[in-house]
Amino acid sequence: MLTEAANEMLTRVGPGTPMGNLMREYWIPACLSSELKADGEPMRLMLLGEQLIAFRDTDGKVGIMEHRCPHRCASLFFGRNEEGGLRCIYHGWKFDVEGNCVDMPNVPAAQDFKHRIKAKAYKVVERSGFVWTYMGKREQPPELPSIEIMMLPEEERMTRVHMRECNWFQSLEGDIDTSHFGFLHVGGVEMEDVSPSDMNRWAVADRAPDYKATETDWGTMYAAYRPADPGSVYYRFAHFMFPFITLTPNGYFEDQLACTLNVPMDDTHTMTYNLGWKKKTRPLETLKNGDWIPGLQPQVEYLPNTTDWFGRHRLGT
Ligand code: FES
Questions:
Q1: Would you state the pLDDT for residue 260?
Q2: Do residue 29 and residue 90 come from a single domain?
Q3: Which of 31, 120, 217, 309 has the fewest Cβ atoms within 10 angstroms?
Q4: Are residues 37 and 110 in the same domain?
Q5: Are residues 258 and 290 both part of a single domain?
C-alpha cells in the first residue's frame, strides 16, 4: 500500500513538484492536431496544472503558451487569431507561436519596445496525430516516444480520447490492472457462453490470476498468468512506460499494437488517449452465439465540448 505522503508525491504535477518536474522532462501530448484550425479560435488547455492557450496560426504552425498576456494579464483565450499570430483583445499586442511580441499597436512607434517582450511559450511539434509540447527546461528536448502504434500510417491507427475526473496515476492503474478484466469486462460471461477458440475463455475460467513483475529500462513490465489448455499457461503481458504510457494486453500477440497515454491535466483530471490498430489479423471476440461480448465493446457517448478548462472530451455515460 502507498503511504499518504507517497501518494501525494506521485499525483501532484504542478510546477515545482517532484512529479511535475519529472513529467516536464518528457514530450507531452497537448491535444489532437485535428482540434486546432489555421486562424481558428484559440483553445484553453490545462496541462500539468498550468492554464495554457493553444492556437494554429495562418501558416499552420501551432503555439502553446501561458494564457495570461504578459502585458496586463488579460486572457489570450479571448484574443484574435489573425495573420500569423494571436492578438490580445485588451491592448492589441500580438504574439507569434513562439511567444514573440510582433506588434504593439497601442504604443507610439518611437517608444515601441515589442522586441523586449516575450510570452511564456513552450516548444511544440506535431506527429502521430498529436500536438506534442515540451514544458521542461532543457534547451535540447529529448526524443519523441517511438512506440510502434504511433509510427504506423495514420489510416491504420485509431485514436479515442476521453477526460477522466481522477489523477493520472488512478487512470494509469485502472488501465494496466489485469485483475479487473475477469469482472468488469467479462464478469457477465459464463464458460458455456464462450467460444472454444476465444482466448478470453481462460480469463472466464480463472478470474484470480497470479503475477510476475520486473523493472525495465523504460518502466515496468508484468504478466498475469493462469492455467490454459492442458500443458500450457495463459499470460497477459502489460508495460508501464515513463512517464504515463501503458501497453495493455488487448488482443492476440501478433495484433498487439496499441498504447494508452494518461496525460495529467492537473492533480485531479486526466486526458486519456487510446491508440489502436485498425488492421488486426483476427476478428474481435464474440460469444458462442455470435453476439459481441458486451464488456469488451462498451458504447460511450460524449457530452458536447465546451471552452472550459475541463470542457473537452467529457464522457456522458
Ligand atoms: S493585456 Fe494584453 S495587450 Fe494589454
A1: 96
A2: yes
A3: 217
A4: yes
A5: yes
Q: Ligand 1 atom 3: the closest Cα is on which residue?
A: 91
**pLDDT value at residue 4:** 95
For residues 95 and 100, what is the distance between their CA atoms, to the nearest angstrom? 5
CATH number, domain containing residue 109: 2.102.10.10
User: Looking at ligand 1, which residue's alpha carbon is closest to its atom 1?
Assistant: 72
Domain of 194 in residue numbering reads as: 168-296
Q: If you search the block for the grid coordinates 508525491, which residue do you land on?
A: 9
Q: Name residue 287's beta-bridge partners.
A: 194
Mean pLDDT for the chain overall: 93
CA of 76, closest atom in ligand 1: 2
Question: Residue 190: which pLDDT band, with cuts at 50, 70 and 90?
Answer: confident
Q: How would you label 79-114 residue by residue, b for 16+ Cβ within 10 Å and e otherwise?
A: bbbeeebbbbebeebbbbbbbebbbbeeeeeeeeeb
Side-chain-side CA neighbours of residue 209 (13 Å): 26
Q: What percentage of residues in the chain have a pLDDT greater than 70?
A: 98
Q: Check if the beta carbon of residue 86 is closer than 8 Å to that of residue 55.
A: yes
pTM of the shown model = 0.93
Compute the distance from residue 74 Cα to the ligand 1 centre, in Å: 6
Q: Is residue 83 part of a domain?
A: yes
Q: Give the total number of structural domains in the chain.
A: 2
Which atom of ligand 1 is closest in space to residue 88's alpha carbon? 2
Give domain status of residue 150, yes or no.
no
Cα of 92 from ligand 1 centre, angstroms: 6
What residues flank ligand 1, with Cβ below 6 Å?
A: 69, 71-72, 74, 88, 90-91, 93
Q: pLDDT per residue over 82-137, tens digit each?
A: 999 999 999 999 999 999 999 999 999 999 999 999 999 999 999 999 999 999 99
- With bands split at pLDDT 50, 70 and 90, how would you rate the model's confidence at 5? very high
| Ligand 1 pocket test, candidate residues 68, 93, 101, most atoms within 8 A of CB | 93
* 107 Cα to the center of ligand 1, angstroms: 12
pLDDT at 208 over 80: yes
Q: Please choose, from the candidates 73, 293, 274, 46, the residue with its C-alpha nearest in 3D space to the C-alpha of residue 175.
A: 274
